[in-house]
């Protein structure tokens, strides 16, 4: 319900925004052959469900689509032998029916063609404007049943675009569709961060001619000033329970890390180092904060308790590591490392200490994990223009997201919606 409400209310400025274009390269270590049938009567809806599902599965890199199976509803008798002979290990079928109240009854089944059995299925009543969301939810179910990890197709992303002298904070579906503008400004907007429940975004705006941290409710459009102190106010990051944010402030001299309640009250200082401490990020369990500090002479990533106290250095490979992002399971750290003059995305397995370079580009910034931990989105530069990229955590699947005109930067991947 919350997701549906958000999609129906988040219409600040719709039209006229260029959709993200997604290009995919590479495949996962294992691809599952799957056939997606056209849903019976799906032409009644404005969105073709089967096409959206196919696009989702293709974009993931972990499915091989078997084409040419035609129209099959969830009640149709299936020739499993024919599908097996064509190499399909799974089949997606379904139907669409218009209801008297204007909604659509969408029914779906996922079939195991090897065992000739049903793996999953459900029915959803969807409004016309939420048909894409319904398709993404079906894709999520397919991904979870066949890969064993919750799908993230029905999630949202936020990012900042710059065209001419105008900056826009935009919200889009994970596939780049359904772009909405949450904020327009002639001054820079940076560091957007989703609230854990997906209803708010924190960000830094320079509209007051200095960096100020705001929280914006995406449903009511209400904005709250969270940090507007002397000097710089930057790098907001939500606590997992959504009650407060970690921020970086220079109000007392060098930039240090503080926490503040989501309504702007209750400011508390966490670090008191002789260096610059910034870019805080809570761990998924809320017990730790990862952050950037130059206390050792160069920028490196540290971890401390979320209540402050002693900090432990985490990164040792290379002399310049910034922008920490921790995976949802707490096992992997993503960050940007400068080596040989290149700014590239790296990951660190926190248990083994094993590093992996994830990108081939050279001007990377702002990594963000998908809520299921299987992908990392980041900003980079292509042809002197900002663009977004996505890489699977095994490094095998890569996506490039661009807009027709202008720069696109500062991505943040939203949470699972309830």
List the helices and strands and how they pair.
Blueprint: H1 2-9, E1 21-25, E2 32-36, H2 49-60, E3 63-66, H3 80-85, E4 90-98, E5 104-112, E6 117-126, H4 131-147, E7 156-163, E8 166-173, E9 180-185, E10 189-194, E11 200-205, E12 212-217, E13 223-227, E14 233-238, E15 244-249, E16 256-261, E17 268-269, E18 277-282, E19 288-293, E20 300-305, E21 308-313, E22 321-326, E23 332-339, E24 342-349, E25 355-357, E26 365-369, E27 375-382, E28 385-392, E29 398-402, E30 407-413
Parallel strand pairs: 2-3, 2-4
Antiparallel strand pairs: 1-29, 4-5, 5-6, 7-8, 7-30, 8-9, 10-11, 11-12, 12-13, 14-15, 15-16, 16-17, 18-19, 19-20, 20-21, 22-23, 23-24, 24-25, 26-27, 27-28, 28-29
Helix pairs in contact: 2-4
